[in-house]
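tmp note - SDR family oxidoreductase
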Amino acid sequence: MSEHVPTFPDLKDKAVLITGGGSGIGAALTEGFAAQGSKVAFIDVAGAPSRELADRLAGISRHAPLFIQADLTDLEALKQAVAQAESAHGPARVLINNAALDDRHELLEITGDYWDANHAINLRPVAFTAQAVAPGMIAAGGGAIVNFTSTSYMLNIGAMPAYTAAKAGIVGLTKGLAGRLGPDGIRVNAIAPGWVMTERQKKLWVTEEGLAAMIERQCLKRPIEPDDMVGPCLFLASNASAMITAQVLIADGGMM
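out:
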C-alpha cells in the first residue's frame, strides 16, 4: 500500500463491505480500508487468492478482514453474504461495488444469453448489493456507497459493448441511488478508473506498445496501478467528502 495514502480517522472501526475484493483493484481496496482500521468484509467468487489475502492481512490489521465466498450473479447468495457481513461487523456504513468482468466480445457474435450474463456480473449486483445494505445503513444513520464504473465506455471502444453498456449504466444507477438514498444520509458516488495494470490486464491484454500509447495520452506519464484507486475511494467513503454525492470521479492520469 502506498505510503502517500492519508489516514481518514472516521473510517477507523467502520464496517466496510467490498465486492470483488479478492484480486486486482478490489484487493488493493481491501488492503487500503484494512490499513485505515476499518472492519472490512469482502465478497469474491474466487476462493484461494481471497483466503490468502485475508490471512495475510489478519496479522497486520486492527480488524482481520472477513472473506465471504459468493457468486454475485446469484441474488439469494448475495443477500446471504450481506447478512453474514452484518452479523460479523454490524450494518455496513461503507459499500464499495467493485466486482466486474471485462471480457472482450464481438458485437456480431453475442447472444441474448451472453448479454444477460454479462450484465448479471457487471451491472445487476451494483443495484442489488445496494438494496441489500440499504436498510441497515439507513438504520445506522447513513453512510457512503462507491460504485466502480470505467472510462472504457467514454472511449468508443468497440471490443466489449455489453461491458461498456453496463459501466455506463452504473453512472445512471449511481445518480438514481444518490437521489433515492440522499434523504437517508447516504451518499452515492462513482469512480471511473483508466487502464489499471492489474495482473489480469497484464496477463491478457497489456502489450508494450499498447501501454506506451496509453501513457502517451495521459498527463501523468506512468502506468496506473491498483493502489492508485485506493486514495480516491477512501476519500469518497470518508467524511472528507461529506457534501459530495451523485458524482463520477475520473482517475485515469488525465487521459480524458
